[in-house]
Every structure is written in C-alpha cells, then in structure tokens.
Amino acid sequence: MKQIVVVAAIIRKGDKIFATQRGYGDWKDWWEFPGGKIEAGESPEEALKREIREELSAEIDVERFLTTVEYDYPVFHLTMHCYLCSLASDSLHLNEHEAARWLSANQLDSVRWLPADKGLLPELRSLIS
Which stretches of the chain drop beneath a pLDDT of 50? Predict the structure, then answer.
C-alpha cells in the first residue's frame, strides 16, 4: 500500500480551532486541518509553514508537536504529524480550499471531517474546552 506522510496545522485562536473544506480531489467538500506533504530537505515545521503560506497566504507560529495520526484510506496509508499552531497575523486567504471556519469545542461535529482528521476531535475538545 502506498505511504503518504504529511504535516497538519491545528491552528488555535482562543477557544476555537481553524478548519478548511477541500475544494478538489476525491475528498472534495470534506473538512480537514490545513497542511500537506514534506518536501526533501524540509523539517516538519518548515513544511508546515510553507504549506500554510501556499494554501492560506498566512504566516503561522508552530508552537508544539501535538500527535501523529496513522490512518488507512482505501488506496494509501496516511501518517499525519499534527502541530499546535497560532496565526502570526489575522490575514488569511483561501487559495485552495472552498471554505473555512473557526470552530469551538461544541461545533467540531458540525462539519464532515476527513476520517484521519476526525480522530483528533476528542483531544482537541479537551484542549479548547
């Protein structure tokens, strides 16, 4: 099975977490934490900052490693390294996503999460509650 390794930004502002809706591909319209693949020579933190610049035209501060999610999708195995982050400024622009929302703990179930991302919700609820 194909292996894909990505990084994801769990962007927190106060008691809310930032979520994005995919605008393309097999999982179009599903919700996820922004991020992407690590390029050769990049640290996970560098990859995360680059991906957020590309996807959201935003700068982030990577605060700390949160967890790694392992998930078997039908055609690949995903390893997703998740980092707790904050925005360096409030400026955001959706370059690749269809929509975005700031979600409080009781709103986390209001969107259709990608399966791997959904596994983070219990931990995030306790983090922002």
Answer: none
